[in-house]
Amino acid sequence: MPGTSTKDQNPQIETLRVDLGTRGYDILIGSDLIERCGSLCWPVLPGKTVVVVSDDNVAPLYLDRVVASLEGQDLDVKTVILQAGEGTKSFANFQKLCETILAMGIERKTTLIALGGGVIGDITGYAAASLLRGIPFIQIPTTLLAQVDSSVGGKTGINTAHGKNLVGAFYQPLLVLADTEVLNTLEPRQLLAGYAEVVKYGLIDDFAFFQWLESNGKALINGDDAARRYAVHTSCAAKAKIVAEDEKETGRRALLNLGHTFGHALEAETGYGDKLFHGEAVAIGMVMAYRLSARLGLCTGQDEERLIRHMAEVGLRTDLKGLGAEDWTAEALAAHMSKDKKVTDGKIIFVLAKGIGEAFLSSVDDRDALFSVLDSFLSGSK
Ligand code: GLY
């Protein structure tokens, strides 16, 4: 069964299966997984050599523990530390990473381990997909966003001058270890940005989860580990189910892009940097998707209000204030959107909604409605 959950013999670990036949794998969720990563990875490793790829934010916190735990299983462990930040997902850095790993003298059974957030997971996964035409890799996501979204499902890749993630591969990991304890060291703004992707699962098709988040979201943000584990588990279960049904995004998987078409346009305008994190762009993008849905008569404005209320309660931004949007135009935003991967036969495929928990895919012929939504955000009106 896709996304089925079993309690591991260790009660602190829950296991979800991404059911993709021979490419299927487990997502382990719990605390203390970093300390035990050696014994948790060991059963799936095809060889004795691993290369841990991390970044200069995460490595000082966790790399020593990961290496010690892996060496505790008599593994030969090598490490690569990249610069933290979206800029690392470039062609130049991808080439450097591949050359560095090749210089280590790897073979087909060498396993890459991505220890970090979405950037490290994406570039390491793509290196794994490419080196020697494919070597195994494991994801140890250290941000909420990576735990609930990017580490699961096998989307790997890098950015290009034409947009984000436009070069990459679907390439599934052997295992995902989501250690919720590492979220304690996450910068609050990063945690909140990841929370937007958690809310997304409620909006797509799980109204009850959205209600749960309305009651428990603040506790989750403030450090409640039980709430974090429940949210990570629910999000990963939802994602595992969708990925098992539509691995290569020929249909239903595109629902996971709720808020992303708008969000990527905002990231393009802000330069893919610290001004607006990916999750923050998705948060605003989800509000835009609900406003567009309301303009098209698909849902009520109250759904948008409810979404804004919840995101504001936890501290997520829902508008463009302070981003320099005075200098942007609706045309420029629409142009970014039309370069998105979600364009089919020249039409942008939007994730729209009939309500909270009722998302669906559709193109939008009503250009006036789209532009009125973009203009309303640019002018800060409704
Ligand atoms: N982040 C969306 C997906 O994995 O399909």
Structure description:
The protein is of the alpha/beta class and 382 residues long. 45% of the residues lie in helices and 19% in strands. The protein contains 13 helices and 13 strands. The strands form three sheets. The protein has an eight-stranded mixed beta sheet with strand order 1-2-3-10-7-6-4-5, sandwiched between helices. A three-stranded antiparallel beta sheet has the order 11-12-13. The radius of gyration is 20 Å and the shape is globular. The N terminus is likely disordered. It binds glycine. Glycine binds next to loops. Glycine (GLY) binds next to loops.
Protein traits:
382 residues; alpha/beta; binds glycine; 13 helices; 13 strands
How would you concisely characterize the structure shown here?
The chain contains 13 helices and 13 strands. A hairpin with a 5-residue loop joins strand 1 and strand 2.
